[in-house]
Design a protein that fits this description.
elongated, alpha+beta, 7 helices, about 20% strand, binds dinuclear copper ion
C-alpha cells in the first residue's frame, strides 16, 4: 500500500482497463473543452462590436458539408465510446470458467469469506495473483456493497439474492475492502483487506488454515438434518425431482418455461418452492423460509452444486 495519492492502486485486470477508459474519456473531453473554449475566445475577439469582420451569410460549404461532417464525426465518436465502455463492463460481468469460487456473506457489520477448501476468514480475503476469482455473494440482513477500489470492483450484496463478481489480481500486496452501501451504525467500520499472494504462497496459506468441512460438506449435513433427503433421495418413495447433475443445467418448468438451475434458482426453490415447479411434479414441497438463514442457503446451494460436479465426472 502506498501513501496518499490521488490515483488509487491499480491491482487487477479490470482496474487497468477502467483506468485506460477513464484517461481516454478525460483526454477526449479535455480536447473538446479546449476546442470549444478556444473558438469561443476567438469569436469573441473577431466578432467584437465594431470589428470589420464579415457578418453575412455563411458559405454553402460550411452550412452543409461541415455541419454533416462534424455531426457524423461526433456520432461515431460516441458510438466508439459506447462500444469501449460497454465491452469493458460486459467483460467485467462474465467470470471465466474454472475461476476460484469464493463465497462472501455480508452482515452488519462484517465480511465473511469462504474458500473452496473450507477455509474461512472475517474481514479478510486471501487470493492468488493472476488467477480469476469469482465471488458469490449474499447478505444476511440489509444491502451492503463489496468495494475494492484497487480492483475497480464494486457490487451490491443483497439479502435474499445472490450477486456475483469476479476479478483477476495483477499485483501482490494488501488492498482495502470497503462496504459501499450505508448499512447502519457501523457501516464505516465494515472494512477489511484483500491480500494478494503469489499462487504458491496462496496454496501454502490455504493449506495452513485450520481443517474445516467445506461448504458443500456442511450443506450435505444440513440436507439430511432438514429432511430434504427424505424426498429428494434416489430411494425415496416421494415423487420429488432428483438433484444430482441439475446444477447449471436448464430445467423445464410446469408452466412451460425453461430456467437454468443456478444458485438463484436453487435458493428460490428452497424459499418459494411453489413458484417455479419442475414439469411433471406436484407443488407439494413446503417452504423453508425462516428455517434456514443465508449461510445455510449458501451451504445447501454448494451441496447441490457439488452433486452436479460429481455427476459430471461420472459421465
Ligand atoms: Cu455494510 Cu455498509
Amino acid at each position: 500500500m502506498r501513501g496518499f495519492s490521488l490515483w488509487p492502486d491499480t491491482a487487477s485486470e479490470l482496474a487497468a482497463q477502467v483506468d485506460r477508459l477513464f484517461i481516454g474519456l478525460l483526454v477526449i473531453a479535455g480536447a473538446i473543452l479546449l476546442l470549444v473554449a478556444l473558438l469561443l475566445l476567438a469569436f469573441c475577439i473577431r466578432y467584437r462590436r465594431g470589428s470589420a469582420a464579415q457578418r453575412g451569410d455563411l458559405p454553402a460549404f460550411v452550412k452543409r458539408d461541415v455541419e454533416i461532417g462534424w455531426t457524423a464525426a461526433t456520432l461515431f465518436l460516441a458510438l466508439f465510446l459506447f462500444w469501449w465502455a460497454g465491452s469493458t463492463q460486459i467483460h467485467a460481468g462474465l467470470p471465466p470458467p474454472g475461476a476460484l469460487e469464493i463465497h462472501v456473506l455480508a452482515k452488519q457489520w462484517m465480511w465473511k469469506t469462504r474458500h473452496p477448501n473450507g477455509a474461512r476468514e472475517i474481514n479478510a480475503l486471501h487470493v492468488p495473483r493472476g488467477e480469476a476469482v469469482r465471488l458469490v455473494m449474499t447478505s444476511q440482513d440489509v444491502i451492503h456493497s463489496f468495494f475494492v477500489p484497487a480492483f475497480r470492483l464494486k457490487r451490491d450484496v443483497l439479502p435474499g439474492r445472490v450477486t456475483e463478481a469476479w476479478f483477476r489480481a495483477t499485483e501482490t500486496g494488501e488492498f482495502h475492502l470497503f462496504c459501499a452501501e450505508f448499512c447502519g451504525t457501523d457501516h464505516a467500520r465494515m472494512i477489511g483487506r484483500v491480500v494478494v499472494l503469489e499462487p504458491e504462497e496462496y496454496a501454502r496459506w490455504a493449506a495452513a488454515q485450520p481443517q474445516q468441512e467445506d461448504l458443500a460438506g456442511e450443506g450435505a449435513a444440513l440436507f439430511t438434518a432438514l429432511g430434504c433427503s427424505g424426498c429428494h433421495a434416489v430411494s425415496s418413495a416421494v415423487h420429488a425431482p432428483r438433484l444430482a447433475g441439475v446444477y447449471g443445467r436448464p430445467v423445464r418448468l410446469a408452466d412451460g418455461r425453461t430456467i437454468v438451475a443456478d444458485a438463484a434458482y436453487v435458493r428460490d426453490s428452497i424459499l418459494q418452492p411453489r413458484r417455479d415447479v419442475v414439469a411433471g411434479y406436484r407443488p407439494i414441497m413446503p417452504s423453508f423460509a425462516g428455517l434456514v438463514d443465508q449461510g445455510d442457503l449458501q451451504r445447501l446451494v454448494a451441496y447441490i452444486q457439488s452433486l452436479g460436479a460429481e455427476e459430471g465426472r461420472q459421465r
